[in-house]
Inverse folding.
């Protein structure tokens, strides 16, 4: 097989958005993931959007069972998985029906013709076969009997027909790899590695992939071939990474950079479980993972480990944070470091467990009993989850406080190329345990005061085992300095204020507001979290069309950067796109008396840059 | 942890005023523990008392060790995290029947099945004290309280039965009227490598006074307390005239020794791998008003949880070497740009 990636005869395009769609059992996530990997290794910039149903195996062939993977690959920088796919690979009628409306006008549809038989058409709710009734007129349709061709190439491999059929996604992958001149070696190597020891599976998948590739070459599909040149990325070593992996590695890095063993207390929940899976692998880093009996035990075990001097973490999604609320309140009053990771999803309740949403911000800020302020950090891209995790841990350990780290389903599962940081350049996190008394009593005897604060209002961390530093901590209000139980009204007011001020003071130790786009514009778009990609894309396009828009993207949501109010006051028009009904916008209005306007989306999907471009323009017109 | 400095009860007590109701059974348990600690050859610094919420849960404030008064029902979970992170520590967990068996029932059973090395002292007074007198998950059916004016219709838990059903490797019972028995039992729990559950019958003289009098008043003990002694036939009575036998159906019942003969008595074996007989013994008394077994029901060796976790870490380090961040970041395919 020839690698046509460098063939000069092939026309070049600067980007393509492909959507692989099929039944849950068709292996679409894997297909998309392999295509992404090959593109990343080839040097394209890219961003992905995996979308799958909440059911592990929804009824086969139904709309509910459609699983899709969208990827934008480009020779330029991209920050989103694309506004609309230009190519849709549909492995069955349900996939076509579910996703055709996303396809760009005039786009290409590649279908597995074999799946378009009566039963499947029925299940998808088609009365007539869309491949024959003219409903796809307006699109370029490539019909290929993928099931049949895959079975044929597997016929001599001693593979059962049913097993052979399972390899049809590799046929599709081979075909699309040929169309977009992807190198084939990474995929072939991966098949060898992934299915090591299962020779028939290797043989079938390899044969199907090669057959798909060859089909493109021989079936007069030449007019569809395009190349996408490598992107002009900064020099360095890159890997393709999703948000949950980056976040896990950021936590491992925090453990290394602080010199503290990590303890993760977690209970499986979509879309956070992959962090537990990832960290459970890294025991050689001294990482202890504990799969607790429930969300509450998960956070409580982490607080116990924090009391013992570990870097303590609990990972979950919104419903889990709700369950952990009481214990997080305890961590607030104990003033113990703890990182709470919330991979947000559509809510309330079970909501849309596999779809993205960013509607837990107000819960992160205020979703506890009593006055219990807590720093909140939000990651903004899959790879940036690494830095966000490191920063959340830094703040927790430096300021003896629980910290909420927000990510979401889109960041968690979406991937992008990541320029690997130089490990030597990562910040160290200084942690000093108390080792001796820090005060004297009335008789001049040395004593230890567990709530005697330093200039940052931070109390000492004295862990069990420390000579002579026995002390008790607890949920009851504690007397200033001694930590003994106190019901004194003045003391409660003082301690409440100290806990608040301690968090507010962290603003002195975080970056000032960074403004991108056109800083001199009269409109600023303020975002947080995963909307970064779409906002950046929209602001870039508006700028290219001479519409001046500034962009502020907040990673620190509590406390805010100390100059944020001042920065926002410079703009006539403050727009706040969010994947919720308007949460940051409330905070900004309350905090800075600024007339910020919301742009909201709650469809379980990220914003596209095109959507935001339209919305921003429309709001600017209203001013 | 051998060779700890010599201490006395005073060293283990804090300067905090003890705030239980006068006459509460918790005082005698606290005294028993404070008197016992100097005998354990452990440092105060390496000792942690963790509690949830309730009257019993104030206990850590009175122990001059490390301690945490946490939230309602969750003390086994906090303790599990601490014991995993710091296997070098001695972790004691204190809670009442509401804390441990109602709101915290889930954490208790999971801590027991995992066999994490913590010593759980469950103060069972069969009532809610701190919320002023509602029925608890161990209150008897028919109990009239503020929240059950027509009598409780809840089937109570038997704490020992529950613990045995939850795969506990060490289960014992003692009571607040016998300091020596408490101390012996607590020492056994401490010596056990794994999760130990000790149910302590404890009088609440305000909301449930005299609940255990039938069995724990000095005059009533010979007739109604059955001492479980490993390797010995189970016998009791004012004149040691009664005993425990297993009948033909496999039930454990009380019999007159004169009727069945000494050889028929059940010989207590704490180490039986199967918890069945221990469970049967835990069902001997329906409540604290008929002959009730006291002492260690079950004590078996099983891998301790934190040790299991630590050995996995050691094995991973042995196999892969200590973690290297640079290598981790490059563990998926990478490529170079320019």
């Amino acid at each position: 097989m020839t690698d046509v990636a460098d063939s000069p005869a092939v026309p070049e395009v600067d980007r393509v958005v492909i959507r692989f769609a099929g039944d849950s059992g068709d292996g679409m996530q894997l297909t998309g993931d392999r295509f992404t990997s090959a593109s990343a290794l080839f040097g394209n910039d890219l961003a992905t959007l995996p979308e799958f149903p909440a059911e592990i195996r929804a009824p086969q062939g139904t709309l509910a069972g459609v699983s899709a993977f969208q990827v934008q690959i480009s020779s330029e920088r991209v920050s989103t998985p694309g506004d609309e796919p230009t190519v849709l690979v549909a492995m069955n009628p349900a996939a076509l029906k579910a996703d055709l409306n996303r396809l760009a006008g005039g786009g290409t549809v590649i279908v597995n013709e074999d799946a378009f038989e009566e039963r499947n058409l029925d299940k998808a709710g088609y009365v007539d076969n869309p491949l024959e009734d003219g409903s796809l007129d307006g699109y370029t349709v490539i019909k290929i009997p993928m099931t049949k061709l895959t079975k044929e190439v597997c016929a001599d491999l001693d593979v059962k027909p049913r097993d052979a059929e399972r390899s049809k996604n590799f046929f599709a992958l081979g075909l699309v790899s040929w169309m977009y001149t992807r190198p084939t070696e990474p995929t072939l190597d991966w098949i060898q590695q992934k299915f090591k020891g299962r020779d028939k599976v290797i043989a079938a998948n390899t044969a199907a992939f090669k057959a798909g590739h060859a089909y493109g070459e021989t079936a007069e599909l030449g007019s569809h071939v395009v190349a996408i040149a490598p992107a002009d990325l900064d020099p360095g070593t890159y890997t393709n990474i999703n948000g949950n992996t980056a976040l896990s590695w950021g936590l491992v890095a925090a453990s290394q950079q602080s010199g503290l063993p990590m303890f993760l207390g977690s209970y499986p929940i979509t879309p956070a479980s992959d962090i537990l899976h990832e960290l459970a692998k890294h025991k050689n880093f001294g990482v202890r993972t504990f799969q607790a009996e429930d969300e509450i035990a998960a956070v409580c075990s982490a607080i116990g480990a924090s009391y013992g001097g570990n870097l303590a973490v609990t990972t979950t999604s919104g419903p889990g944070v709700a369950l952990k609320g009481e214990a997080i309140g305890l961590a607030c009053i104990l003033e113990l470091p703890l990182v709470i990771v919330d991979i947000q999803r559509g809510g309330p309740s079970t909501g849309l467990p596999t779809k993205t949403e960013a509607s837990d911000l107000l819960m992160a800020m205020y979703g506890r009993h009593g006055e219990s302020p807590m720093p909140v950090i939000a990651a903004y891209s899959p790879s940036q989850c690494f830095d966000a995790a490191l920063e959340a841990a830094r703040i927790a350990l430096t300021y003896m406080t629980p910290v909420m780290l927000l990510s979401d389903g889109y960041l968690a599962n979406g991937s992008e190329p990541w320029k690997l940081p130089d490990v030597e350049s990562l910040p160290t996190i200084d942690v000093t345990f108390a080792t001796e008394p820090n005060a004297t009593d009335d008789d001049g005897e040395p004593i230890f005061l567990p709530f005697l604060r330093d200039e940052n209002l931070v109390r000492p961390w004295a862990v069990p085992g420390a000579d002579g530093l026995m002390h008790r901590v607890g949920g009851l209000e504690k007397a200033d300095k001694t930590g003994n139980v106190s019901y004194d009204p003045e003391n409660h007011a003082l301690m409440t204020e100290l806990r608040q001020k301690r968090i507010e003071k962290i603003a002195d130790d975080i970056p000032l507001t960074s403004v991108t786009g056109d800083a001199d514009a009269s409109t600023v778009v303020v975002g947080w979290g995963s909307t970064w990609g779409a906002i950046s894309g929209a602001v870039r396009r508006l700028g290219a069309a001479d519409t001046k828009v500034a962009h502020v993207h907040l990673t620190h949501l509590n406390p805010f950067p100390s100059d944020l109010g001042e920065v926002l006051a410079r703009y006539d028009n403050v727009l706040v796109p969010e994947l919720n009904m308007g949460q940051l916008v409330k905070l900004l209005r309350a905090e800075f008396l600024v007339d910020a306007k919301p742009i909201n989306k709650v469809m379980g999907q990220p914003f596209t840059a095109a959507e935001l471009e339209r919305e921003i323009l429309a709001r600017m017109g209203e001013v | 942890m051998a060779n700890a400095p010599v201490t006395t009860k005073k060293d283990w007590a804090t300067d905090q005023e003890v705030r239980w109701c006068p006459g509460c059974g918790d005082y005698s348990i606290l005294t028993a523990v404070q008197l016992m600690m100097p005998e354990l050859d452990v440092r105060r610094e390496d000792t942690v008392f963790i509690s949830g919420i309730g009257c019993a849960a104030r206990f850590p404030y009175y122990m001059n060790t490390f301690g945490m008064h946490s939230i309602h029902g969750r003390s086994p979970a906090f303790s599990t995290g601490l014991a995993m992170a710091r296997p070098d520590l001695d972790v004691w967990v204190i809670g009442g029947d509401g804390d441990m068996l109602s709101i915290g029932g889930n954490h208790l059973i999971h801590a027991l099945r995992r066999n994490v090395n913590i010593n759980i002292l469950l103060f069972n007074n069969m009532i809610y004290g701190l919320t002023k007198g509602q029925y608890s998950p161990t209150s008897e059916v028919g109990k009239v309280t503020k929240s059950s004016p027509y009598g409780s219709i809840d089937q109570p838990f038997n704490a020992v039965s529950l613990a045995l059903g939850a795969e506990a490797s060490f289960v014992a019972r003692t009571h607040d009227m016998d300091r020596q028995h408490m101390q012996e039992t607590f020492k056994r729990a401490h010596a056990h490598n794994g999760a130990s559950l000790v149910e302590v019958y404890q009088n609440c003289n305000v909301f449930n006074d005299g609940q255990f009098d039938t069995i724990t008043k000095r005059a009533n003990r010979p007739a109604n307390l059955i001492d479980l002694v490993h390797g010995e036939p189970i016998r009791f009575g004012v004149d040691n005239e009664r005993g425990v036998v297993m009948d033909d159906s496999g039930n454990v019942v009380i019999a007159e020794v004169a009727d069945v003969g000494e050889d028929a008595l059940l010989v207590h074996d704490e180490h039986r791998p199967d918890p069945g007989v221990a469970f049967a013994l835990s069902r001997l008394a329906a409540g604290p008003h008929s002959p009730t077994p006291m002492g260690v029901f079950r004590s078996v060796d099983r891998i301790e949880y934190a040790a299991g976790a630590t050995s996995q870490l050691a094995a991973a380090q042995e196999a892969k070497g200590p973690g290297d961040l640079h290598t981790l970041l490059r563990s998926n395919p990478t490529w170079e740009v320019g």
Observations:
- Residues 48 and 66 of chain B are 5 Å apart (CA to CA).
